[in-house]
Amino acid sequence: MRRITFDLDVLRTFVTGVDMGSFAKAADRLGRSTSAVSAQLKKLEEQLGMPVLRKEGRGMTPTPAGESLLAYARRLLDLNDEAASAVRGAELAGSVRLGIQQDFGEQMLTEVLGRYTRVHPQVRIEARVARNTELMALLDGGKLDLALAWDNGTAAPLAVEVGRLPMRWIGPADTTRLALDLNAREPLPLVMMDAPCIMRTAATRALDQAGIAWRIAFTSPGLSGVWAAAAAGLGLTVRTDMGLPPSLRVLDVHDAAGLPPLPDVGLRLHRAEAELNPPAQRLHDIVLQALTS
What we know:
Protein name: LysR family transcriptional regulator
CATH class of the largest domain: Alpha Beta
Family: Belongs to the LysR transcriptional regulatory family.
Strand order of the largest sheet: 4-3-5-12-6
GO molecular function: DNA binding; DNA-binding transcription factor activity
Distance between the termini: 33 Å
Number of domains: 3
Radius of gyration: 22 Å
Oligomer: single chain
Keywords: DNA-binding, Transcription, Transcription regulation
Number of helices: 9
CATH architecture of the largest domain: 3-Layer(aba) Sandwich
Domain HTH lysR-type: 6-63
Shape: globular
Number of strands: 12
């Protein structure tokens, strides 16, 4: 059997194109021409002797072979990037203070910070999981180097937008716990974070514009309280898909019939200073890569 040695640069193009849903966008991100990207994908298919992409509508989607390759490609690229970071930053030491929005706490702590600590064991990380208002106050007060927070609409010259995520109507996974009837005379019960809250404002504004009566049935200063109350069937809540526990589910078209559409919300990675110290800059790059790859 002929042995294949994959070109990691080609695999990165393949993964980036699939993740972005467009190989033209991938070409822009990777600083290549579309013809160069096409040549790389052709080389990949020639190596394998089978197609990894097929046309679907105006775009391309992975074939079954491409789906299988995609999983291995991600692992190879992660290992490559981790090895490169370890070699380049073997002597990196010091400390970095990171603030994380509650929705991302588990993902960031287990995946990104775990990876960072393995590569840079001499760096001390202080992580704070909190709400947007607290994170911004800590950042402004010089108590954080980095903060991952929702876009609250204010100017942020030292922040980069990681992306935009759709807000969702969310209810209990056990459908018997909450009967949703928008035709009833009773106001729609909502489970929300204490004000001020971007998601809460978006939900009530959308309901007001749709002429749907609502009431706040439960509030909590923390996300865990919101998750518990919504899972118990005390009302609907609004968040993104991030960090959704198995006791809850995003309402589908049938469940949410009559509920108004919700806007997207931006996610920003803030930095306290234009020039970060080396440990903070390295963590900034790893967080950004994890959320955009």
